[in-house]
Amino acid sequence: MLDNPIYPIGSPNQPWTEAEKTHWRAQQRKRRSYQDDVVARIEALAEFVQIEQYGQLDYGSDQYPLLALKIGEWTTEKATCLVTGGVHGYETSGVLGALYFAEQVAKQYSDNINLLVLPCISPWGYETINRWNPLAVDPNRSFLPSRLAAEASAVMDYIAALELPLDLHIDLHETTDSDNEEFRPALAARDGVVNKNWNIPDGFYLVGCTDRPQPAFQQAIITAVEKVTHIAEADAENKIIGAPLEQKGVINYAAKKLGLCMGLTDAPLVTTTEVYPDSPRATAENCVLAQVAAISASLDYLLAATKALS
Length: 310
Fold this sequence. Notes:
Layout: E1 2-3, H1 18-26, H2 34-43, E2 49-59, E3 62-71, E4 79-85, H3 92-105, E5 113-118, H4 123-128, H5 150-160, E6 168-174, H6 178-191, E7 196-197, E8 205-209, H7 215-225, E9 239-240, E10 243-244, E11 250-253, H8 255-258, E12 269-275, H9 284-309
Parallel strand pairs: 4-5, 4-6, 6-12, 8-11
Antiparallel strand pairs: 1-7, 2-3, 3-5, 8-12, 9-10
Helix pairs in contact: 3-9, 7-9
């Protein structure tokens, strides 16, 4: 772990006030379009999926419809799977992987599984390439009763209103060089603490849930993704991003306690994917395909488990 230089907003050891958050927000700029990149692709699927708007974010003059895709004919006889992307808007392959899956792959599974895809939970973060929302709140630490992020609250309410329990939830993420260059230093500055950068792993890995580890499930995903891209190795301390390695390419987090999207439900099968788009061994297309391979492998595992129980 390496110390990072002092962040240019705020004072050392002093948590941000609203003044610093306003300063930070004023520096953010739109760098891509949620409407063009995400909404338009979702709307193009309207002939064969059910599109539901589960909320709307109003940030100043910007309004962002929050959209979900219900794929296939939902019945109580089928298992139900949730795919989420863009909880951190800057993690591009999570958003594009969820969309690609809905467009190209979902039909293969929709006869046997109720599929629910939320491609971009944090559209402001997508447009500005940010980890936080405009209030300097991390949506992926906000799936908690405190409801600090509107992005997380909208998802929580939508999922709570579903008539069927979830059997599987796969949440699509990335670990990027910008974590050390921007987002972790900003977090330390916001909270008035000393930043310690983590070692960015070169390759794909998974984060399982500490209270629902499911090692065979995680291993099945790693095995499938390994055919598409390389798997991250542990560092000299046998850790990935500071967490002990559980098995090849897999670490565990206390998802519910930390307010992670992965901990949103009580689904027995849960995982977070982590792609490394800055690797010299990866391309943008390869990262998207790795996300899709992870989704497909998780669904294959669910189907096999369901069949074994029948």
